[in-house]
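To fix ideas, we quote verbatim one protein's residues and fold tokens.
>
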Amino acid sequence: MREVTGYRFSPATLSISRCDWVKAVYADSTGVPHTWTGAHWDSGSMSASSNSSYTYRFTSTGTFDFVCSYHQAAGMTGTVKVT
């Protein structure tokens, strides 16, 4: 599980096995919307009002970068490493 909180992902780097699922859960008490967006997935806008989460299954090995499309410039980025 990956939490979306403040202007960071926690944890920002995650190592998983191929075919594992990752669930991003909105956990920001400020109410600011966020996304969990990679090259092959996009959670859409996640917020406290919608009690949001988004799950994605990684079926290929590799390194997958992701961002919050709203706060990428503020450094809200991370990586999933799939082996």
In short: Residues 53 and 76 are 17 Å apart (CA to CA). The beta strands are 2-5, 8-10, 13-16, 21-26, 37-38, 53-57, 62-67, 77-82. Residues 2-82 form a domain with the Immunoglobulin-like fold (CATH 2.60.40.420). The radius of gyration is 12 Å.
